[in-house]
Design goal:
CATH class: Mainly Alpha
CATH topology: Cytochrome p450
Distance between the termini: 60 Å
Mean pLDDT: 91
Shape: globular
Number of domains: 1
CATH superfamily: Cytochrome P450
Low-confidence stretches: 1-17
Largest sheet: 6 strands, mixed
CATH architecture: Orthogonal Bundle
Number of helices: 17
Structural class: alpha+beta
Bound molecules: protoporphyrin IX containing FE
Strand content: 5-15%
Strand order of the largest sheet: 3-5-6-14-11-7
């Protein structure tokens, strides 16, 4: 793109628009919409003590309907110099319900280990995606999730009891991360003895410091899933792997790669998302004793408090790829452009609800995009809500009011999945 001197040094929405950055944007992007912005490394988004990515990101709400964000990480992780970030809920809904125009088709993890498979269903478009969803839906029904309630509660209780007497804990390592791993094992029907191993694989995969460690996590999980599939072929059980072995799409059984992609996704999708959401929800309660007191006095508000906090503390912006050149949200997009739909903005869009910045546990009929929108709407949302609600219930009944431990600061980050890395809580 030819540099347009008009934009040199222009301060737009607090981001200094640097001339050579505008020049890095593809030619079809209007210069006035270019921002130097990264979910991973911009101020307020990068990991840091007391970082508050939701507050730092909120400024985009008051700008144009869509911006083109340039960052080195978009190049590194997504293979494009930048991506369109939508800032209004209506545009996001419009985009997310047109998978023929904005596709989910890609391979994220398989290439890291020299394989080729997509995560099922999330990296597929309709009509195949619809078939996968129809096959999987019964596994995630509210009734089936309800049956997991006791197991979830007993895990929450045993984790809390393991650190209660100490008067403090490192919330991420001692609660937020181990909690969903056990629930995944229960969901899939894998013995709890493998918990430590799965926890380590999950840590390597999602938080490994280098590519080798992350690839090692992918390899370990995939090898284990392939082993399980081979075993259940000869020893069928009443479990998840046997269920997908018997599943059919397009009138045929799933290929082994589709089964691996499915088991892998259920592992990945339910771990970091729950841990990250727990981190923001508990940080909010730790910093807002009056909200803790409100829930202690009136526990029946817990489910709506969970919903309201998921609305305000979205963790997962959704990315899609334009399948053709298109005029959308007032701009010309090209085939192959990345678009990004952050619930972190959709859920505080003043066009959608009153007092969007206020946290109100008595709000009713909350509609939000924290669990996405359109065909890929989170299939695990009932399970996630159950985990979060039970975590609140057990923490609030078993522990006295908790706070961020004096002299410590939580390390919070944005990125692909926003959350806390480290967070010390104390009580008593
Ligand atoms: C608070 C926790 C959670 C949040 C915030 C969350 C959020 C999301 C979002 C935003 C998507 C859409 C991704 C996209 O379209 O690109 C999604 C999809 C998905 N989630 Fe969740 N999720 C959570 C927990 C879970 C759990 C516990 C499970 C299952 C064990 C799960 C399984 C899935 C699956 C399988 C998909 C793909 C659905 C599809 O492509 O049709 N999620 N989730």
């Amino acid at each position: 793109m030819k540099f347009d001197s008009q934009f040199m040094g222009a301060a737009i929405m607090g981001e200094q628009l640097v001339a050579d950055k505008v020049a890095e944007a593809p030619a079809h992007v209007p210069p006035e919409l270019v921002r130097e912005f990264s979910y991973w490394s911009s101020p307020g988004m990068a990991p840091g003590p007391n970082a508050d990515p939701h507050a730092a990101f909120r400024k985009f709400r008051d700008g144009p309907r869509v911006v083109y964000a340039l960052s080195p990480e978009t190049t590194q992780y997504l293979g494009s110099p930048g991506m369109w970030i939508f800032t209004r809920a209506a545009d996001m809904r419009d985009a997310l319900q047109q998978p023929n125009l904005f596709s989910s088709q890609r391979e994220t993890f398989a290439p890291m280990i020299g394989e080729s498979w997509r995560m099922v269903p999330v990296e597929n478009d309709p009509p195949l995606h619809t078939e996968f969803r129809m096959m999987l839906n019964p596994l995630f029904s509210p009734k089936r999730m309800e049956a997991m309630k006791d197991g979830i509660r007993s895990r929450a209780v045993s984790l809390i009891e393991s650190f209660k007497a100490r008067g403090e804990c490192e919330f991420m390592d001692e609660f937020a991360r181990p909690f969903p791993v056990t629930i995944f094992l229960q969901f899939v029907g894998i013995s709890d003895e493998r918990r430590e191993e799965f926890q380590q694989w999950g840590r390597d995969l999602l938080h490994g410091q280098d590519l080798e460690t992350r690839a090692g996590g992918v390899r370990a999980i995939v090898d284990y899933m392939r082993e399980l599939i081979a075993d259940r072929r000869v020893n069928p059980k009443d479990d998840f792997i046997t269920f997908i072995l018997n599943g059919r799409v397009e009138g045929r059984p799933l290929t082994e790669d589709e089964m691996v992609g499915c088991a892998f996704l259920v592992f990945v999708a339910g771990l970091d998302t729950v841990a990250a959401t727990l981190s923001f929800l508990f940080l909010h309660l730790a910093r807002n004793p009056e909200h803790q007191a409100e829930l202690r006095a009136n526990p029946s508000l817990i489910p709506s408090a969970v919903e309201e906090l998921i609305r305000v503390y979205g963790i997962l912006p959704m990315t899609r790829i334009a399948t053709r050149d298109v005029d959308f949200a007032g701009v010309k997009m090209k085939k192959g452009d990345l678009i990004n739909c952050p619930p972190q903005l959709a859920n505080i869009d003043p066009a959608e609800l009153d007092r969007p910045d206020e946290i109100d546990f008595t709000r009713t009929g909350i509609h939000h995009m924290g669990f996405a929108y359109g065909p890929h709407r989170c299939i695990g949302s009932h399970l996630a809500r159950l985990e979060l609600t039970i975590a609140f219930e057990e923490w609030l009944t078993r522990l006295s009011p908790f706070r961020v431990k004096d002299g410590t600061a939580p390390i919070v980050h944005a990125g692909t999945v926003w959350g806390a890395e480290e967070m010390r809580l104390a009580w008593g």
